[in-house]
Amino acid sequence: MKFSEFNFEPSLQEGLDAMGFENPTPIQEQAIPIILKGKDLIGCAQTGTGKTAAFVLPILNKLAKEDTNSTNTLIIVPTRELALQIDQALQGFSYFTSVSSIAIYGGSDGSVFETEKKALTQGANVIIATPGRLMAHLNMGYVKLDDLKHLILDEADRMLDMGFVDDILKITTYLPKNRQTLMFSATMAPKIRTLATKLLNDPEQISISLSKPAEGVLQGAYLVYDAQKNNLIKSLLEGKEKELSSVIIFVSTKQKVKELERDLIKAGIMAKAIHSDLEQSEREQVLRDFRSKQTQILVATDILSRGIDIEDINLVINYDVPGDAADYIHRIGRTARASSTGVALTFINEYDQQKFAQIETLIAAEVNKIPLPAHLGEGPVYAPDVRIKKPFAGGAKKKPFRRNPKPQGQRPQSR
């Protein structure tokens, strides 16, 4: 199938042609006709399958037929990075139309807040917003959404995981009840179905490759002690600048991100970190440098595991096993976008083997365990059926609880 078969408005089709879009992905092929008909929809598809265009294009097609200054569509997303990505996609697709859009998210200065206020009062055709920032505007009483016709929840499962359900439900009280509502998610957990029953009206449902990694991802894993991880990464990356033009390393905490960035730079491997301690302008610059290949290696927390559309990533490394099995899909979905190929490697220490076994159950496949380079020594044995508890923080054991009073001047030991 080709995009031309959707019979989009000429101004929208011109934008698609200019961007080289010819063939829709499966989620686009199935979702676009449903949205064009005005039906509510639950779209379930993994990262990298083209969900953004699946809902943006039919909405833009409707707007291309109208001449309106009011806010027609509200897209709610979990992160500022995803808001910016969708706004950039909208600007590209709508280049030859008169559609206006704005991304509204936290962490900005006062002048940006005023620009957002102007858009919300005077009307941008499409608003892309994070829940918290939008609620800040709504609470001030000047937001005009009376003419809204479309509500879209993107990465709905992530928003629920982040605790935004109350904000989402509150936001919907400001919207017209007669509207088209679309919900897109990478998983179809029970909580997603519960939210859908509250917000959607007799929705159609699409599921594309649910809980399966993209076919082009070559997966592998190393059994490795934490003390070996940094040296393993250096071994994987040193001297590979020409082969690996784009690498993301996902780390569980921002403190580890900072430490790994320092260690790599010290070893002569140029890497940049992105985490929540950076200012928004700094994070945007890091992403721009990574997209343009000025930065080849990005060390990141999970803020990048969903919703960031960066193409041609050669290698994804899970420095830590994701805490949620479904997050593994999103992390490795950063590579092998669309029809490309890529490599995803996961480091499994002795404590995370049960978690990784749950991932293998979810994807219905056993991931190849790669031997460590000889100079690193032996790693832990893979025994996911044996549960190993992590030592108490700092490696020290808790002191036993004693009921006898402590000597004068000391505080009693608590449990």
Characteristic key phrases:
single chain, 415 residues, Rossmann fold, 2 domains, seven-stranded parallel beta sheet
Helix percent reads 25-40%
Tally of alpha and pi helices: 14
Separation, N- and C-terminal Cα atoms: 65 Å
Averaged pLDDT = 84
Task: Name the CATH homologous superfamily of the largest domain.
Answer: P-loop containing nucleotide triphosphate hydrolases
The portion of residues forming beta strands comes to: 15-25%
Total DSSP E strands: 14
pLDDT under 50 segments (min length 5)?
Answer: 392-415
Structural class: alpha/beta
Strand order of the largest sheet: 3-4-2-5-6-1-7
- At the fold tier of CATH, the topology name of the largest domain is Rossmann fold
Quick one: biggest sheet? 7 strands, parallel
CATH architecture of the largest domain: 3-Layer(aba) Sandwich
Shape: globular
Walk me through what this model shows.
The protein has 415 residues and is an alpha/beta fold. The chain has 2 domains: 3-208, P-loop containing nucleotide triphosphate hydrolases (Rossmann fold); 217-388, 3-Layer(aba) Sandwich (Rossmann fold), CATH 3.40.50. It has 14 helices and 14 strands. The protein has helices spanning 10-19, 26-36, 51-64, 80-93, 110-122, 131-138, 156-161, 165-172, 190-199, 226-237, 254-266, 280-291, 325-332, 353-363; strands at residues 41-45, 73-76, 101-104, 126-129, 150-153, 180-185, 204-208, 217-223, 247-250, 271-274, 297-300, 315-318, 342-348, 368-370. Helix 2 (26-36) packs parallel to helix 3, helix 6 crosses helix 8 and helix 13 packs across helix 14.
